[in-house]
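Weekly modeling sync, notes
Attendees: S.R. (lead), two postdocs, one rotation student

Agenda item 3: backlog of single-chain predictions. S.R. asked that every request posted to the team notebook include the full sequence so nobody has to chase files. The rotation student volunteered to paste the first one in as an example of the format we agreed on. Action items at the bottom.

Example entry:
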Amino acid sequence: MREDQNRRWLWVAGMMAGAVVAGAQSADVTAGGKGFGLAELVAPTKLVAPKAGVPPSAVPFQPDVNAEPHGYFTREPKDRFTRLMNDLGTERMPLDRASELAFLRSLLAALEIPVSSQLLVFSNTSLQLSLINPSNPRALYFSDDLYLGYVPGGKIEVASVDAELGAVFYIFDIPRDASPVRVERARRCMNCHANEDTLHVPGLVVKSVAPGSGGGSLDSFRRELSGHGVPLSERFGGWHVTGLGAFDGHLGNRMGKLFQGELSWTPLPPATRFSWGRYPVTTSDLLAHLVHEHQVGFVNRLVRAQYRARALRQGSPGGLASAPSAELDADVRDLVRYLLFADEVPLPEGGVTGDAGFKSAFSRNRREIEGRSLKDFDLKTRLFRHRCSYLVHTALFEGLDPEVRSRVVRGMVSALKPGSDNAEFAYLGEEEKAKTRAILHRTVPGFEKAFP
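Predicted structure, as returned to the notebook:
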């Protein structure tokens, strides 16, 4: 017991140190650029060489995203928000400046992000951590390709995913008058958005922590994991969740307390310490949480494959075709399995109802073939009726490296072909595979020849 307590206290000490670093990162955002720089607080990190005898495949892929051939901060992003941001607040994209909430509503509408996707997080695990606590949760909104954060009294944060660079982060003030919207690229986000939680590439993060009374983290769960395979019992720590029904096998809607190395929990139902009136809607729906988690896992796996392919191509005179393929093959296999929901955890007993507003907004851009779509929900035992991700319909999937995309398509074709004896995908029945093939054949380039 004493050893476990010591480990926990050492971890908490590390989290406190991490909070100092994060505070330093956000100082120029929350205090007008008058905070200390990160270099003044943290000694340079030493790179440790892999241990002798450890095969290369066992060493985590940790590319220098700023160096060539990646050039994360030197190459011009091509994501949707980058293309739109100069129009914000102009005649081409007018925004309501009557109030903070009016601005948020109009911004979400302009970016085609459904307000019903709202998720509330009260742990201060964000760039604006000094403003986030159980009395002032941060709201997150998302579409198929954009993620927007809003903290009452704070700034707007946007994460947009570029097919080549990965997640690209922006931040800007809510204008109080007729002044223009000044969007800045947020470089400091990379401290958390390019580490083990994102597979070491610029990606998306969903933290699950035991938040203290002020929102600070006392413990952390599901580290280095993202996506629909994360156990529900390890999700939602530090988040509010509505639409739960009788389901209580999760970490949401509660605060932690650490005493003598033992962690205990106290219920914190939504709106106990804040007013819904500060937000556009009164939900932080379970279904929206589940869909958001699915998207995060997809983004991180796809971006890793992109960075791996570039690194291998640069290191091989004959290009990607002649490069060592074991690591890339593993990334492709992981992505194929993910797209086909191979490791999806089952939904709570009795299924999920889902907020009607979110379900309606989510289905607006569905691609339908004979009344069927990859966006059709199941919600009884799994998320979707047809277990192939709707994200194959996004610009992110279309923008995959051609060779990587070809390998992914071949892997999906092999898994979905009729009469396949591939035990890895035996959970997919013949009828489900047939319907999925029909949808892919007519909606995703590259599948029309594979599924005639």
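Discussion: group reviewed the output briefly. The longest helix spans residues 2-30.
Action items: rotation student to repeat for the remaining queue; S.R. to check formatting next week.
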